[in-house]
TrEMBL record:
Boundaries of every COQ9 C-terminal domain copy: 138-202
UniProt-listed InterPro entries: COQ9_C (IPR013718)
Protein name from the UniProt record: COQ9 C-terminal domain-containing protein
Pfam families for this protein: COQ9
Native source organism of the sequence: Acetobacter senegalensis
Length: 226
């Protein structure tokens, strides 16, 4: 395992583990001008990296003023932009099954696109640094929530939280697979299918176990003779 992939894997795993104890982060700043600048930067970030110098080069000499937080803010904002693009692409889905809508959303969020994967690799390198760990956790939480939103899930309460924590594990594993070897669409789809099938099997097993546990009936006390 290379140093880069090891650091990213560790950072993603820690971020996924932290989803259970994290509250939903505040909405990130959204602006069409920022979005345009991010798209220009993302198209070259795989080769040139996420830096203010590259941003100024591709989006104008004052573009760095749009992201006072520097590269970490840029990558976090780009992740949010990708979430929004996924939600928009799922708006007209006619798939009746929730599990398949989740699969569609996952594959739209992590497309087999060399430029996007390359940009994501350098971006997650930024977020894997100690100064980016908070942004990584926030980004993962926003993405997981966006996937459920795109899948048109309307759960609430504890079910809402449980679903998002479970999907966080699936998304984290899929993200790492996508970054390392997600260039084949059929292989990526099969990977997602296996992860979702595993979640469904676990859910059915839990339902059988909890449904089969009946309270133990206490024996009636023996009658005593008068």
């Amino acid at each position: 395992m290379s140093g880069w992939s090891g650091k990213v894997q560790q950072a993603v795993s820690l971020a996924v583990a932290g989803l259970a104890t994290s509250s939903m982060p505040a909405a990130i700043e959204r602006d069409p001008v920022r979005d345009t600048a991010l798209k220009k930067l993302a198209s070259v970030a795989g080769e040139r990296g996420w830096s203010l110098a590259v941003l100024r080069d591709v989006a104008g000499p004052e573009a760095d003023l749009l992201f006072p937080g520097g590269p970490v803010e840029m990558v976090e904002a780009w992740s949010d932009l990708c979430d929004r693009d996924m939600i928009a692409a799922m708006a007209d889905t006619e798939e009746p099954r929730l599990s398949q809508r989740v699969k569609q959303a996952l594959l739209l969020r992590l497309p087999v696109d060399p430029a996007m994967r390359s940009g994501a690799k350098t971006g997650f390198g930024v977020l894997a640094a100690p100064c980016g760990r908070g942004a990584l956790r926030r980004s993962l939480m926003r993405t997981v929530n966006a996937i459920w939103q795109a899948a048109q899930d309307d759960s609430s309460g504890m079910t809402y939280m449980t679903k998002r924590i479970t999907l966080g594990t699936v998304y984290g594993a899929t993200l790492l697979y996508w970054l390392s070897c997600g260039q084949n669409e059929a292989d990526l789809a099969a990977f997602v299918e296996r992860r979702l099938a595993g979640v469904l099997r676990l859910g059915r097993l839990k339902a059988r176990l909890t449904g089969g546990l009946q309270p133990v009936r206490q024996p009636e006390p023996y009658a005593t003779s008068a």
